[in-house]
């Protein structure tokens, strides 16, 4: 994972990682799932068909 922005003054980060790495980390680390102090908002890719 690479930190894109540490959002100074907040306890938040914007990070990027290769496809599947972040999801694997989240699923493998039980301290993240269900932790009320951690909120994860993935940036889902969308596909568009162009005529």
Provide an overview of this structure:
By secondary structure, the protein is α+β, with helices and mostly antiparallel strands. It has one domain (1-51). It has 1 helix and 2 strands. It has one helix at residues 21-28; strands at residues 2-5, 14-16. It has a two-stranded antiparallel sheet. A hairpin with an 8-residue loop joins strand 1 and strand 2. It is extended, with a radius of gyration of 14 Å. The N and C termini lie far apart (36 Å). The mean pLDDT is 80.
Key structural traits:
16% helix; 2 strands; 51 residues; 1 helix; alpha+beta; two-stranded antiparallel sheet
Straight-line N-to-C gap: 36 Å
Tertiary shape: extended
Tally of alpha and pi helices? 1
Percent of sequence in beta strands: 5-15%
Q: Uncertain regions: pLDDT < 50 for 5+ in a row?
A: none
Classify the helix fraction into a percent range: 10-25%
Count the strands? 2
Write a short abstract of this structure.
The protein is of the alpha+beta class. It has one helix spanning 21-28, and strands at 2-5, 14-16.
Furnish the topology, listing elements before pairings:
Elements: E1 2-5, E2 14-16, H1 21-28
Antiparallel strand pairs: 1-2
């Amino acid at each position: 994972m690479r930190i894109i922005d540490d959002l100074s003054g907040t306890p938040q980060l914007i990070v990027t990682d290769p496809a599947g790495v972040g999801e694997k980390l989240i699923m493998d680390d039980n301290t993240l799932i269900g932790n009320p102090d951690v909120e994860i908002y993935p940036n889902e890719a969308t596909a568009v068909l162009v005529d």
